[in-house]
Amino acid sequence: MSSIKLQIKTGNQKYPIHIGNDVLNNFQKLLKENLINFNQCLVIIDKNVPKKLINKILGFLPKKKIVLHYFAATEKNKNQKSIDKIVSILLKKNFNRNDCLISIGGGITGDVSGFAASIFKRGLKFINIPTTLLSQVDSSIGGKTGINTKYGKNLIGTFYQPSLVISDVIFLKSLPKRELVCGYGEILKHALITDKKFFTFLNKNGVDILNLKSPSIEKAIYKSCSIKKKVVEADEKEKSLRKILNFGHTFAHAFEATLGYSKKLNHGEAVILGIKTATKFSFVNKILRIKDSKLIENHLKRFKLPNDINKYFKKKNLNQILSFMKKDKKNNTKKINLILLKKIGSPIYDLQFNDNKIYLFLKNELIK
User: What is the pTM of this model?
Assistant: First the structure.
């Protein structure tokens, strides 16, 4: 399947996303097309990315102008200390606003790199090369950057759009199945909040997508990116519609934080558990019909996606989960804001619930 181009237009920025196999071969051409020139370039590299693919990218860049920084991409390293290291490099090498920062890695690397680019001298040119399915369909689109703190996930960050995004399927072939499942969770989320036809497509082609078979994988990435593009263009700063992209995430972020961002549960898996929880909560509160609830539940089981919360949590964890949910950045009152489903393809946002209601739901319905 040939490469596909999506053009993102926000109030502050216009940039392309290029999706396909071996898109990297056109890297130099894409730089010229988008008028991306620089005197120096800091390349932040996720240590998990195969060296062969890193060398391919570096081969397109002028060697004298490149500074390399290798990053151990974990949730625990998504912090202020990592930002300080990057900013120190930029200061030491005397980078200026006409210079560039390139991120090569998954969502954590992209979030950290984008945040550093956004705050250094109030903004460097930023190129994002996402290398995981999760980052290609989610975090590389829309300009959200951020780091974690002991109080919760992504509570410090900015909105900062890149100059160029390159999503090459070639990176995905090096990923373990667990990482592909993580990315699939975000693809599923996009279908559930906007497009029942896309959900039907996933029901039919889920196995091919998870096995990276063409053209199903490219179609899934493109459709998922297209959905997020429309939402981001309509509401860049998450004041209204963009909140629907957080479906399942209020639960998911609390799950991750409760486990201390352990490798036992990574972000994509937490999102899938969050989708399961938000779907069940929608049904229990008579917002979602049983038919659609069952369709979602069966989809999770059919493709063997994470859906048993009891593998990760016990009732003793409930208070901690609720504590992190109350700190969620979407809350603007003492209540907890949730995005729920009325039906597949039709979300509802800005619903607020007191923590006791959510506590009793988790205790009675999900966590044994």
Answer: 0.92
Number of H helices, E strands in the chain: 13, 11
Q: Are 15 and 164 in contact (CB under 8 A)?
A: yes
196: tokens are 């029942």
SS3 state of residue 35: coil
84 strand-pairing partners: none
Q: Inter-axis angle of helices 290-302 and 267-284, to 10 degrees?
A: 160
User: Which two tokens mark 213?
Assistant: 């078979």
Place of tokens 């990116």: 225
**Nearest by Cα to 10 from 186, 225, 189, 162:** 162
Cα separation, 28 vs 33, in Å, equals 9
Confidence grade of residue 13 (pLDDT, cut at 50, 70, 90): confident
Can you give the pLDDT at residue 172? 96
DSSP 8-state secondary structure symbol assigned to residue 344: T
pLDDT over threshold 90, residue 367? no
**205 Cβ contact partners less than 8 Å away, ≥ 6 residues apart:** 216, 219, 220
* Cα(85)–Cα(115) distance, integer angstroms: 13
| Residues with Cβ within 8 Å of residue 250, at least 6 apart in sequence | 274, 278, 325, 328, 330, 336, 337, 338, 339
Give all domains of the chain, ordered by start, each with its CATH number: 4-174 (3.40.50.1970), 177-366 (1.20.1090.10)
CB 187 within 8 A of CB 137: yes
Q: What is the spatial distance between Cα 186 and Cα 181, in angstroms, rounded to a whole number?
A: 9
| Strand partners for 9 | 14
Handedness of CA 275, 277, 278, 284 (dihedral sign): positive
